[in-house]
Structure formats: C-alpha cells, structure tokens
Design goal:
The chain has 181 residues and is mostly helical. The chain contains 7 helices and no strands.
Length: 181
C-alpha cells in the first residue's frame, strides 16, 4: 500500500504545498519590504540634506541684511583689525542684531541639526571677527552686565575657539545667566 494515498494524505500534502508556497511568498515579500525600507531611508536622508541646505541658504539670506556690520568688521574696513568699533546706539543695535543671528547657528548645533565643523566653515570667521574686535568683545562679551544677554553667542565662540590654534589669543568667556533683579 505504498503507492496509494488517501484523501487525508492528499489534504495534508496540499496543506504542506500551500504552506511552502506561503512561506516562499512571505520570503519574497520580506525581501521586497527590506528593499522598500532601504529606499525610504535613502529618500529620507536625501530630503533631510535638501532641507538642511535650504535652511542654510535662508540663513545666508538673513546674513545679507547684516552686510554693513559684516563689512565693517573685515580687516580692510573701519572696524577690522581693531581700528575701531561701534559708537552710536544705532551701530550697537546693528552689531547686537548680527550677533543674535549668529546665536541661531549655535542653536543649530545644540539641536543636532548641523555639525559644528559646518557652522565653523560657513560662519566661524564671522564669529572670530566679532570677538577679535576689542570694542565689541569688551562691551558685549567680557562685561558681566551685558555678557549675560549673549549666552548663545558665547557658547558658539567657546565651541568654535578650540578648532583654531590662532584663536587662542582671545579669552574663553563664560556664559553668565541673566538675573531677573
């Protein structure tokens, strides 16, 4: 009775074949799903890079509104190489507004949106030009009464400073919290 299969044997055989086909289909679906997950991850990373680049371009646009201060701080111009600094209330307002924009760069680093090295490459020289100006540094970063308002800028300076051996001639300023007296 070796060659004769009963109805039960046929049902078990068909069930086994169905299970094998189902397992094979599940394996194919799993391989396909793995490929889809990889593609989704690739697209996510690509869209993140595009969004990051767009944000940096928008930040560059914002910096253009501060070109007057940026230019004055360049070595060849009136405040560069410690030839002077802001004197009027309007000039100080422009400088502090510029510093405030740079504080956003520190936020990008702290929130993990951008790497410190990228911020340094794009904006580090701007931070350096501010700190290397004795008038601005003394008034806004070393003066205990005003430095408390520039904590994020000071954090950015202290983050970028160790990346440059030639920046060590300027002090590491400490963030002081504002008191609500």
């Amino acid at each position: 009775m070796l060659g004769i299969l009963t109805l039960t044997d046929y049902i078990v055989l068909l069930g086994s074949i169905a299970a094998a086909v189902t397992a094979a289909a599940a394996l194919v679906a799993l391989v396909f799903a793995k490929g889809q997950v990889r593609e989704a991850q690739r697209l996510f990373q690509q869209s993140r890079k595009v969004a990051n680049a767009d944000f940096l371009l928008r930040l560059d646009d914002a910096f253009q509104r501060h070109d007057a201060v940026h230019k004055r701080l360049q070595p060849a111009f009136e405040w560069g190489s410690n030839k002077g600094g802001p004197a009027s209330a309007e000039e100080w307002f422009a400088v502090t507004s510029y510093m405030g924009l740079l504080e956003r760069a520190n936020y990008l680093v702290e929130s993990g949106v951008e790497e410190p090295t990228i911020i340094d490459k794009l904006y580090g020289y701007r931070v350096y030009n501010i700190v290397s100006n004795d008038v601005i540094r003394r008034e806004k970063l070393e003066n205990a009464q005003t430095a408390a308002y520039y904590g994020e800028f000071i954090k950015l300076w202290n983050l970028l400073r160790p990346m440059h051996g030639d920046w060590r001639d300027f002090p590491a300023v400490r963030c002081r919290s504002r008191s609500m007296d």
